[in-house]
Amino acid sequence: MRIVDSKESLMEVIPDIQQSQMIGLDVEASGLDPYTSKLLLIQIATTTDVYVINAGRIEKSALLYLFKLIEDAEIMCIAHQSKMEIKMIYHNYGVLLTHIFDTMIAEVLQYAGVAKPFNSLAFIAKKYLGVEMSKSVRDEFLDKKDFDFTEEQLNYAALDAGVMIPIYEAQKKLLEQNQGADVWDLEMKLVSVVAHMEYTGVFLDATAWSKLAEKAERKARDKAITIKNYLAKNFDILAGDYHHGLEAATNLCLPVRQMKVADRKILEDLTVPSEIINKLVPMINLGSSKQALHVLHCLGVETKSSSQKACLPLRSGQCWVSC
Predict the structure, then answer these.
(1) Whole-number Å distance between alpha carbons of 295 and 290
(2) Would you say residue 93 has pLDDT above 50?
(3) The listed CATH number (3.30.70.660, 3.30.420.40, 3.40.50.1860, 3.30.420.10) that belongs to domain 2-200
(4) d(CA 53, CA 173)
(5) CA 64 and chain centroid, separation
(6) What's the Cα-to-Cα distance from 21 to each of 162, 208, 264, rounded to whole Å?
(7) Which parts of the chain are beta strand (E)?
(8) CA–CA gap between residue 53 and residue 43 (Å, rounded)
(9) pLDDT digit string (tens) for 239-280?
(10) 205-221: b or e for each residue (b if 16 or more CB lie within 10 Å)?
């Protein structure tokens, strides 16, 4: 590991970076938002060394030169969840890195998107390299105001970049064995595009959007009232045999075990059917898959799920179905 904290020391390491076909890339920042966070460290690993660059100690023009060199020379940047690195560098230096290999995306491609939804760097470093990576130091960078770092923080940062090239080599070999190189190539080309879209955002008519949201909320409330009125009319079908409100609530799959003792007692004391209906129907959660599935089954709808995908084919001819 070599600490780079001046323009002169940066110029000394540029030849090694310039001669590299690929580099491991990582950054440490005070947060995740490029607009509000401070870029603290930039870590670049070559096959010979790891350079930990103190972003606050070096002129921006010098780092702009470095990243233009990396992009213009088409040096592949290997990073994990690389959109953060891309956005941070673009925000601070105006260079959009486009030659990317994202180890997180590559790991997903190994299993065609099936398996873990998020593969952490610590997970894949352990898997491919047998390297244990503690992420406890990461929190020390959050909201950091200065550019003074402990040896532990610098070593942590260096390791993040240092494992990138070995992980890339292991993943690339598997991708080629599984004939996934073409998909990998396409996915990696899109990373910078998506990162830039996230950074720049889209133009949005906030007033029109708010009106659409209000309209949708009103429609949802009206539908909920219609459904609840229907459930009230068919309450005995849904609630089955009951002697008091607590039994009815249990039959309706309401979360009675989570209720306070006092609230359970109130339900248990309810014995008049109309009072039970008035009390329980508003408590039915239309967003609960368990309660919705119970209602559908009681109404004679044979389905294993209350999801929209499962319900839409059953909608024809059934005026009460509203998924």
Answers:
(1) 9
(2) yes
(3) 3.30.420.10
(4) 30
(5) 30
(6) 15, 49, 68
(7) 2-4, 22-29, 39-45, 50-54, 76-79, 100-102
(8) 6
(9) 999 999 999 999 999 999 889 999 999 999 999 999 999 999
(10) eeeeeeeeeeeeeeeee
Query: Structure tokens of 46?
Result: 């070559």
Pairing of strands 76-79, 100-102: parallel
For 38, other C-beta atoms within 10 Å of its C-beta total 18
By mean pLDDT, which of 104-113, 169-178, 190-199, 307-316 is the weakest?
307-316
Q: Are the CB atoms for 3 and 154 separated by under 8 Å? A: yes
Extents of the domains making up the chain: 2-200, 206-314
Six token digits for residue 103? 């180890």
In this structure, how many other beta carbons lie within 10 angstroms of the beta carbon of residue 261? 7
Residue from 109, 71, 88 nearest 28 by CA: 88
Q: In 10 A of CB 114, how many CB atoms?
A: 8
DSSP class per residue in 45-114:
E-SS-EEEEETTTS-HHHHHHHHHHHHHTTPEEEESSTHHHHHHHHHHH------EEEHHHHHHHHTTT-
Nearest Cα residue to 156 out of 237, 40, 255 = 40
